[in-house]
Amino acid sequence: MPLQPVNRRSVPDEVFDQVLAEVVDGEIGAGESLPSERRLAEVLGVSRPAVREALQRMAQTRLVEVRHGGATTVRDFKRFAGLDLLPQLLVRRGHLDAAVARSVLEARLAVGPAVAALAAERGGPPLAAILTETVDRLAGTDDDVERQVHALEFWDLVVDAADSLVFRLMFNSMRAAYEPALEALAPAMAEEVGQSEAYRLLTAAIGAGDPDTARAAADRVLRPATESLIAALSALSAQEDDE
Amino acid sequence: MPLQPVNRRSVPDEVFDQVLAEVVDGEIGAGESLPSERRLAEVLGVSRPAVREALQRMAQTRLVEVRHGGATTVRDFKRFAGLDLLPQLLVRRGHLDAAVARSVLEARLAVGPAVAALAAERGGPPLAAILTETVDRLAGTDDDVERQVHALEFWDLVVDAADSLVFRLMFNSMRAAYEPALEALAPAMAEEVGQSEAYRLLTAAIGAGDPDTARAAADRVLRPATESLIAALSALSAQEDDE
DNA sequence: CGTCCGCAACTGGTATTACCACTTGACCAC
DNA sequence: GTGGTCAAGTGGTAATACCAGTTGCGGACG
Questions:
Q1: Closest to A216 measured CA to CA, from A189, A160, A208
Q2: Residues sharing a CB contact under 8 Å with residue B188, sequence separation 6 or more, in sequence order
Q3: Sign (positive/negative) of CA torsion A79, A84, A89, A92?
Q4: Per-residue pLDDT tens for B12-52?
Q5: Distance CA A120, CA A203 (A)
Q6: Chain A contact probe: residue of B89, B169, B171 with most A CBs at under 10 A
């Protein structure tokens, strides 16, 4: 294992994670109040500004509501949290949440083809050229981690070409959830990123400016791995239910 | 105009907004450094903890990178920001950004039918019952604002039934961008929320457990207003280009 | 007896200050 | 050149005090 940057966690980070866990695990239900900032600081053995920073970040994520003079209350995160919370929900307590992973795959399968269609409408030949270069790099390596990186690059270019900020932000959010686990997911994604031919077909459709063909080609890139992974996940969660 | 709750803005909120604006408006390009916390506090006439809170929130949104001992640098928000930034980008300096609005509409049209299809697979008859109640309320009023609220409720139920956390979080993020402008958008959305018959067809398809029909019905609900609004937006931005 | 005013006693909001920890770069010894 | 050292600047954390709201209790007044 190569040397890695040391993971330095600040005090507010730690507080944030602890309070976040309490909320998403339902230890403190929606509508209930958090202890006061002073109390939290005392219990956690940190200063009040540190607690404040963490709570303000919680508020920004719409997980709690702080009211001047009143108590800080927990909100229903399933109803208010945004897509930026995905990384924290996908892997909780070091374990992958199968239901969340399934929904990531479903969303990817639904959104990817739509983005490809938009890219076909708006990309043009120069896009096809750099996409081809990326697919060449994808096809030119045997390492599944590298392949994933190139596949991400590929989709990054497609999303750029789609010229749609919302899809771009969605992509960023999902990449933020995906990248930390990229190495662990290498075997799972090998099936998909090994199909360089499918990426070439998609590139051709986008270059041809044909949205419908691009949509279908994107589906063909994403669907096989999506379906086999979802099957694997249900087997996994069924197995967990037995424990 | 009815009395409204006074808009209380805290100091860190204000700082956050100002720094955010500098970043998204490109005043401080990606890779450049922000002034030090002490300097910012001095320039803005606020305390350093206030600046810190704002900067930490910027970091959480992945808009800046703070390094202990080093400078705080701006990141390329188009590449790193998540969907939670959408509200800030949709309306900037009090004006609606036409390109962003267009992409919201495009994303809605792409995602809505996929969610409806999932809901059809997983919802069952009890879902159809409460959806029908919601459509009844939608059809029972002439007020476009109320209709929008009921339409949001409708989609909220559909998203719930789709049982997919990612779509739920996407919906929450987009609702957070949409709701503040709900009243202003009433005329624009009147065409869509007035078509209660289309909602009924969608409800029937979902209740019947037929994903493909549900997908098509959802498209029929969303497409007309989407296309006419996109047309209106391009006319609007063409007009702005003339100024 | 009920209403309402007003005063604690909470809560979060902000500022000040001091000091610790880390990074950077310049300078110097080897 | 290489490596060490040090000073200056940066963010990280804490302690403290006070301001500014909210809440609820109790007493004064009708």
A1: A208
A2: B225, B229, B232
A3: negative
A4: 999 999 999 999 999 999 999 999 999 999 999 999 999 99
A5: 9
A6: B169
Confidence of residue A164 (pLDDT cuts 50, 70, 90): very high
Amino acid at B69: G
What burial letters (b/e) apply to A208-232, b meaning 16+ CB within 10 Å? ebbbebbbbbbbbbbbebbeebbee
Does A40 score more than 80 pLDDT? yes
Q: Residue A92: what are its φ and ψ, rounded to 5°?
A: -120, 135
Assigned token pair, A159:
């999303």
Rg of chain A (C-alpha set): 21
Regarding pTM above 0.90, the answer is yes
Q: Using alpha carbons, list the distances in angstroms from residue B129 to B7, B154, B203, B204, B218.
A: 39, 12, 9, 10, 18
Single-letter residue type at B44: L
Does the distance separating the beta carbons of B79 and A83 come in below 8 Å? Answer: no
Give the dihedral sign, CA A133/A139/A142/A143.
Answer: positive
Inter-chain CB proximity A170 and B107 less than 8 Å: yes
Bases of strand D lying below 7 A from some protein CB:
9-17, 20-23
- Return the DSSP state at B63: S
Please give the biggest Cα pair distance in chain A: 64
Residue closest to A55 by CA, chosen among A30, A80, A26, A18: A18
Contacts of A190 (CB under 8 A, 6+ apart): A144, A147
Structure tokens at A142: 């045997």
Q: How far apart are the first and last CA of chain B?
A: 32
CA pair distance A111, A106, nearest whole angstrom: 9
Q: Beta strand pairing status for A95-96 and B64-65?
A: unpaired
* B166-198 per-position pLDDT tens digit: 999 999 999 999 998 898 889 999 999 999 999
